[in-house]
Amino acid sequence: MGRVRAARASAVTLAIVPAVEATCDDALDFLSGGGAMGACVRAHDWAATSLGSPERWPQPLRQAVRSLFAALQPAALAWGTEPLHLCNDAFARLLAVDGRADLIGASSREKWPLLHDPALGPRLAAVRQDGQPTVVEDHLSCVARNGRVEEAYVSCRLEPVADGAGGVGGVLLVLTETTDRVLSARRTEVLRALAAEAARVRSVEDAHARSMAELARHPADVPFALLYAPDAAGGEAHLVGAAGLAAGGPASPERVALTLTAPAPGWPIAAALARDETLTVDDVATRFGALPGGDWPFAPRVALAIPLAPPGCERPEAVLVVGVSARRALDPGYRSFLELVAGQVAAAIAAGRAYEERRRRADAAAAAGKRARARQRARARAMEARFAGVLEERTRMAREIHDTLLQGVTGIALQLRATLPHVRRSPEGAAEVLERMMALAEATSRDARRAVWDLRGPVAGEGGLPRALLDMARRAAGGAGPAVESAVQGTPRALPRLVHDAIYHVAQEAVANAVRHAAARRIELRLRYARGAVHLTVADDGQGFEFDAGFRSYAGHWGLIGMRERADRIGATLTVASARGEGTTIALRVPCAGRRVASEPGDALSRRGG
């Protein structure tokens, strides 16, 4: 129970000196003084003991008694092989045996339990045997004081006293109480450990668990602890942590009603929260019976209910119930320590809440960053799509110019060159050639106007996409082109510009292919607004073609490839159905949502060109 170390010989305060035979003429001045215990020594019948009358005591014993009475520190003397014990007033006060005359000259374990202690008794025997002084540090000794048996700690210096015959006649014990130092160090370690756990918490629940687990490791100072936190409604407090007591027992209910209307037989949780002050429960045994005593086999009689108000909180958020050790009085130092324990638990809760808040802010910042990066990627994709669209339009217009304007102009130039000889030989034949040239020039002019209009692109103005598609279909059909039927179903709504332009250009390409390459007589163009999607269908009765569903082989079919790329760019689905001699149907489904916009009267618009 204590630390034992050998003392150096120079530390011996009572030297071993030869015994001098006392005579009846010697004065008994060595027995003078000594206060109450000195009076007990003088009144004791020593003649009836193995020591005999004090007049015949050896000189070393006399000197030891004189030093014993003069000592300011608690001291006791054990003399003889069956040691008889004496002590001074300071020793009696330390062990709360003031004025106990029955202790003087006694040797029994019942009268002197400290000297028969399993840790201290063998050290006394060793000093008597080898004559070497020893120090036992921070020895635990249970002392009856303050109306209870308390734990106390003493450091003992054991010094041999010569018997005058070359041996050791007894042992002088000089005590220094170290209870305050031991308790202070122990309690400081509790607070340090709680602070270390508070630095590791990651949530309020983690703070509850870590704090209670740490308190469970220190039952000497905290026999049991319960942590209650009120629910959001404030009607009940829930047990969120326990140490030294199993949750759900009579003294540790899972829920406690927060009512002040009548005193409850349990813990005063509601009162502690309402008053925001520490409450003392001094009838623990009456309320709950015998509760665990921690390191001691004695049930605590007192407990504290301490409200916890973490830093930054105006009102307490929890109540810590802590048991008071049955071996310590609830003095100001003990109370202050338990309130510091509660403060550390409150700090852990605050740390857990702060960590949660930091994590929420970090998660929010990460989510905001993720959204910002997604917007950046979306803008980049939109910009890429726009540039790709511009490049595609340039490529398409290059094909248009090559296939129409350049071929028309080239044809006119060739026919002019071929006409020159006819003008000289046969004016009539030249007129026929000029008629064909005029028709070719007019067709080339129409193609040029269409190409210029296509370069201008659709305008999402009044009427929106439906009007743009109807105008495009009317221009594509021209005066002598195929019959074009167009219809709009559902309520038109505004679409993103990228989606608007993609639908328009797919329809434009499909109609242009039907007019220029399929020799179609009839074209149907339908636009349908459905819930969450827009459907475009362009069908013709032209000559059709062999269809590759995988879009893998389209030599010369650049228009279809362009339509597929536009559909992919806006996440749409493009379906092509065609066979030779059976016409072609192109369907585009665009999943999207938009705002409803004003449309022309009626849910369906129809135009027919031809």
From TrEMBL:
Keyword Magnesium: no
Superkingdom per UniProt: Bacteria
Molecular function GO terms recorded: phosphorelay sensor kinase activity; protein dimerization activity
Protein keywords: Kinase, Transferase, Two-component regulatory system
Organism field: Roseisolibacter agri
CDD domains attached to this UniProt entry: HATPase_UhpB-NarQ-NarX-like
An annotated GO cellular component: membrane
Domain Histidine kinase/HSP90-like ATPase residues, every copy: 498-594
Protein name per Swiss-Prot or TrEMBL: Histidine kinase/HSP90-like ATPase domain-containing protein
Database matches in Pfam families: HATPase_c, HisKA_3, PAS_4
